[in-house]
Amino acid sequence: MVAVWKRELASYFLTPIGYVFVGFFLLVSGILFTFNNLMSGSGDVAAMLSSFSMVPLFLVPILTMRLFSEERKNKSEQMLMTSPLSLTAIVAGKFFSALTVWLATLAGTMLYVLIIGSYGNLYWGEIISAYVGFFLMGGCFIAIGTLVSASTENQVSAAVISIGVNFFIWVVDSVIYVVPAQFISTALQWFSLYERYDPFARAQLGFSGILYFLSFIVVFLFLTIRVIDKRRWGEG
Questions:
Q1: CA distances for 47 relative to 13, 17, 33, 111, angstroms
Q2: Is 26 in contact with 108 (CB distance < 8 Å)?
Q3: pLDDT tens column, 160-188
Q4: What pTM does this model have?
Q5: What CA–CA distance (Å, rounded) separates 122 from 19?
Q6: From start to end of 22-178, where are the E strands?
């Protein structure tokens, strides 16, 4: 897994993808920070991160679109799947490489926190809670993108489909309340990432919220493994 993680992490910065993702995220978040915090005089870090919540919805697919689709396009997927590494290790290595870039990008936004701190007091409990929730929510988007990338060999298609799924997750909170069937509404609640992030933004760092995000990630990575495994035996 470590070998795959290192290779994938290096590839992000040997190609423009890593720089585009980090650069655009910091650019957009910087603009939002300027308008929502600096110009309004707000020192609310949790509100700052909440204002960024739409950004990973559109940008994370850029990070994940090549994870497996590139392997299929270049006809190198079979070599990867016949390596001594298990499919679990391969999927985990690719996922954690994207997650590492996401973590590094979030670390860059700590500059905004330091700027806020220079004008007033920082409440680190609230900040840590908000960042943990935001990081885990981004991890869920990465897990979704990993599954989509494993299901297509076209990177553009993978990005577009991922954005579509992410957009559905963004609007699902509104859909839940207009669905008449209770069992459908209950099922849709499992995809309510933004609602599950709200307690973190309110400094309610709880085990149940962390468990939900981790379970969401594990389920999507498990489905990714099953998709690749099915294709391997189907093509075999």
A1: 31, 28, 10, 16
A2: yes
A3: 999 999 898 888 877 776 666 666 667 77
A4: 0.92
A5: 30
A6: none
